[in-house]
Model the fold of this input.
Amino acid sequence: MPTDGTRIDLRQRLLEADEQRVAGDLVRRRRHISQCHEAFVRCDGQRLRNFAGNDYLGLAHHPAVVAAMQVAAKNCGVGAGASHAVCGHHGEHSALEHAVADWLGYPRALLFGSGYLANLAVVQALLQPGDVCLQDKLDHASLIDGARLAQAKIVRYPHADAAAALRQAQAHPDGALLIATDGVFSMDGDVAPLPELATLAAQQRGVLYVDEAHAAGVIGPDGRGSAAAAGLTSEQAPLLLVTLGKALGTCGAVLVGPDWLIEHIAQTARTYIFTTAAPPALAVAALTALKLSREEAWRRDKLHALIARFRAGAHARGLRLLDSHTPIQPLPLGDNALAMQAAHDLQERGFLVGAIRPPSVPPGGARLRITLSAAHSEADVDALLAALEPLAAQMETRRDAAGGDEAAH
Ligand SMILES: *Cc1c(COP(=O)(O)O)cnc(C)c1O
Done:
């Protein structure tokens, strides 16, 4: 049957989109990872030193974490059996929630299956159409998606620019205000201007929400994250998200906050209510990882020493890293194909490093995202630096060429 003429051929559109991805060096290919062991992975059959993951404290393979999960699976099975609200909320989930609330000094905690689901939950549950969600331009995709679900007005300020954020809040004086920011930015590794955002929130009667995905376990006293590192109280930063899949080496996410926020989210968030609870054994593993991250502070100390070593070595070799003092050490390259080539060359030399391209970063922002872990040794870091030397030389040549062009104009 003929259509009215405005029907779009979906297959055709998808094929065209695919062609554009190929032409723009934007295709994401999954690698097959096997035999991971701390700092090493076997990737498509090749053994590589892993500088691409988020296992910042080296806990994902810790024998105590693995054993805790094995024992718990034996005792309570693999699946939770239902959503939290029906009959899937186990004692193991509660124990983890209490431990995270205690650690961060917040009254209540709520466990989610992932950080992505938690961010959707927070923004969707707290905001309504007509409300304003003020966000850093580099916030994680899940925060944007949450605001879209809420049908709230999404107002994005230039990266880490708290003065611009204030102007934008003043320009949108109607509706409730939620200020949502990554604590440590996932692709840049820098830290949000939290004291200024907390002041803004207080002035504008807004709520500040900090996503501590890359900060929890890594920075701040006792690894409590970016809000604690900035010295903010639980009044100034009332709502925090700790994800469990990064420094805590497992999977899931825990939201902490006061009763009036957490209760409302638990009662209304669709990504909390309409999904099966995470396996209780996973909660036990995460609780074990949390204990280790607190008891073994040397992991953080070692991580920060490796970060300093890497930055000093990169500087000495003329590699221009972004200004980050977290385990995320991006090396901007700009061009998608160049980033892909650089990651490929590193792989040939035995290193797994992420080539990050749009839309994970803005157009022209392609980079190597090098991540460090307490599982690395000084020798691992030195070997990576040596492997980056040809790239340093290549970038130097490019800069000289660009500089020459500028001079000629
Ligand atoms: C990884 C990440 C998330 C998502 O967490 P998952 O548990 O992996 O779903 C959310 N926010 C930020 C900033 C992240 O980096």
